[in-house]
Amino acid sequence: MSHHDDLIDTLRDLSKTDAAKEMDPHWTYGRRGFLKSSVAAAATVGMPFSVLGSKAAHAVQLPYSPDYGQLAPVADETTGLPLLQLPQGFKYWSFGWTGDIMNDGVATPGAHDGMSVVASDANKLVLVRNHEQSSKTAGSFASPKVTYDPKCNGGTTNIVFSPSAKQWVGAYASISGTIRNCAGGPTPWNSWISCEETSDGTHNGATKQHGYCFDVPATGAAKPVPMTDMGCFSHEAVAVDPVTGIIYETEDSTPSGFYRFIPTVAGRPAMGGKLQMMKLVVATNKSQNIGGVSYPYFDTSVAFPDGTTWDVEWVDIDEPNKPFVSGTSYGGVVAQGLMQGASSIKRGEGCWYGNGMIFVCSTSGGAAGKGQIFAYDPRRETFTQLYASTGGAAVDNPDNIAWSPRGSLILCEDGSANPQALRGLTMDGSIFPFCYNNLNFSSSGMGSYTRPSGRVFSGDNRGSELAGATFHDEWLFVNIQTPGITFAITGPWDNGAL
Q1: Start-to-end C-alpha separation, the chain
Q2: What is the CA angle 20-248-47, rounded to 5?
Q3: Which phi and psi (to 5°) does residue 180 adopt?
Q4: CA–CA separation, 186 and 359 (whole Å)
Q5: N or C: which end of the chain has fewer CB within 10 A?
Q6: C-alpha span between 107 and 104 (Å, rounded)
Q7: Do 240 and 260 contact (CB within 8 A), yes or no?
Q8: 317: Cβ–Cβ under 8 A, 6 or more apart, which residues?
């Protein structure tokens, strides 16, 4: 059977609405994922990451992993170009460059962002990829059936990879008509919850209110219906606790909330539920003026020792679908929490479930303003600072994060450093670069490059953010947002912690 025939069969399977029932969800939600995570959890509960709560944890900054080794340019198996820097022994395949024509005839949208493997079987992996496009006039790139607001050009694409053949199979548009689909998160029900990082609406050019979450399945047609009970605000990412079905949400704003959505029916968030905002049991240290009244709250972004832990409470958000405080353009959801003394994260972005914990990224938090990583323990109801970047050669504004099968975090940088990096944060407290962006299409680098679509890539893009890191067994998938490329990376993972 030819590759073309395989492609047709795969896309035919994906068009069936019940195909997901025959596929496994993201690995952390499957049996093997639970077994792997339980081993990691035993280490994590004790840990620096091993001394959670002792205020003695401190990540050691390394120039490279002592296990994987130094980074150097590696040629792409697809194009032959040195697009990434990786340790020796690692290989990768690029796919889905902006402008490439997908299997449905649609040109691949740009601004590749959050992403995850959401379903798998013996022959293929299905990923959903966000596109953080923000135009309110360019129009949807998908069909009307899967379009929310026809004037807007944000959305998602579904892409398929064959790990046994080490090749990309195809891609198609899955939802559009949204704005700034930044991150999101995989679910145990074979889907990706895609989040709009905006509160745009009819007041500033859109034909509908935005700032919502959308559930995008691995197979079949998506329903472009916002889940309004999950809140209307500048969403960033979500993480689902498979034990309870509770969905945790971050908000890219300052101040911003860390939320939990308790669905009326676990696994069916579209049926509604209750939204709450985290309140840490600690003295307040800041205040916010809302409607002429000053409300005190606790801000986690100031300097704290790694390992600092707070007890957690939750306050109800009575009006989750309230984008603004009446008469203002200020966030109506976060204001409801702050008025009840809820706590703030400075630009809450990455959010991921792993080993029984919910890991949370504050992109601009910490004394240096270069980022913090927190761990929320839903069983103990605690919130702990695992790591705060000190700036300089340390982590540069981490954004998307993911949990690896070997029990560590991988962080996607979105700062001002050149080149931007993927960095590993291990349970023994080591942090190191694993991959550097090497996209230099200027005359001093690789030179300009023309895709089969006719699109020409030029300029130095090494400072562009990495996004959408997601693991599945021996594969790591990741995007570089500009000019918009997806990568599948594999190699000797078991030599190290990632």
Answers
A1: 36
A2: 105
A3: 50, 60
A4: 14
A5: N
A6: 9
A7: no
A8: 231, 259, 275, 276, 277, 333, 336, 337
Does pTM top 0.85 for this prediction?
yes
Question: Distance between CA 145 and CA 135 in Å, rounded?
Answer: 20
For residues 240 and 243, give the distance between their C-alpha atoms in angstroms, rounded to a whole number.
Answer: 9
Closest CA to 141 of 183, 200, 98: 98
**160 strand-pairing partners:** 126, 170
Structure tokens, 331: 């966030």
Do β-strands 60-61 and 430-437 pair in parallel, antiparallel, or remain unpaired?
A: parallel
Two tokens, residue 278: 């985290």
Please, which pLDDT band fits residue 392 given cuts at 50, 70 and 90?
A: confident
Mean pLDDT of 98-106: 98
Give the span between the Cα atoms of 123 and 110, in whole angstroms.
28
**Which residues, 6+ apart, have CB-to-CB distance to 107 below 8 Å?**
99, 100, 101, 141, 453
pLDDT in tens, 39-97: 444 444 334 455 444 444 456 888 989 999 999 999 999 999 999 999 999 999 999 99
CA–CA gap between residue 117 and residue 352 (Å, rounded): 13
Q: Interior CA angle at 181 toward 222 and 82, to 5°?
A: 110
| 399 residue type, one letter | D
| Sole residue written with tokens 């991988």 | 410
Q: Residue 176 and residue 142: Cα distance in Å, rounded?
A: 5
**Alpha carbon of residue 176 to chain centroid:** 18
